[in-house]
Amino acid sequence: MKKDVKTDILETARKLFNEQGYNGVSMRDIAGALGISVGNLTYYFKRKEDLLEAVALRQLEGYQKKAPAASLAELDGHFRRKLAFQKGNAYYFRHYTQLAQISPKVYEMQRGIIRDQYEFYGETFRGFKSHGRMMEDTVPGQTRHLIQALVTVSLFGTAMGEPDGERLPCFWSLIWPMLTETGRREYREEVERRGGV
């Protein structure tokens, strides 16, 4: 029974954090939504910060490092899955830096995930270059800067209130200048034609 109550608390808190933001939700709000007393809620989570940490860690439990995308269609799928996850966990991305300050555990997970994102894009783009889909850098650090831009837009687009439909075209707008004619043709045939950007 306790496990079900704890699960209900975590799901309700995540829902309220998504709807009203972390700062807009109190322990009383969460208890009220669950139909329990604040005392019962604090039996499981002493402070709102503890609850936020548990919600965030639960959402990141299933995180696994991704294999590099072998095609532009796979990269588009990666973007779409990432955006869907962010929409379902908007609180996490709206309060990304605040979460890191509240919880050292969450901060370490965030750092690991960002590191993995840099590796994912780096390996993906190396593969694209070796298969003629992407140009070599025309200015020093161009690919690294592209990766920085993709990670930044991905992480902070939600926090900045950017509409969900704006980020996918933004990702491809950043990548497009580095695509070769082969890459652009593949994009038109495999991404755009299948309902992409």
Secondary-structure topology with pairs:
Layout lengths: L1 H19 L6 H8 L3 H7 L3 H13 L11 H17 L1 H5 L1 H7 L1 H27 L11 H15 L7 H12 L5 H12 L5
Helix pairs in contact: 1-2, 1-4, 2-3, 5-10, 7-8, 8-9, 9-10
Quick gist of this model?
The N and C termini lie far apart (46 Å).
Largest sheet: none
Strand/helix succession? HHHHHHHHHHH
Oligomer: single chain
Name the shape in a single word.
Answer: elongated
Low-pLDDT stretches? none
As a whole number of angstroms, the C-alpha radius of gyration is 20 Å
**What is the total number of structural domains?**
2
Mean pLDDT: 89
Q: Beta-strand level of the residues, as a percent range?
A: under 5%
Describe this structure in words.
- The protein is mainly α.
- The model has no long low-confidence stretch (mean pLDDT 89).
- It has 11 helices and no strands.
Keywords for this entry:
single chain, 197 residues, mainly alpha, Arc Repressor Mutant, subunit A, 2 domains, 72% helix
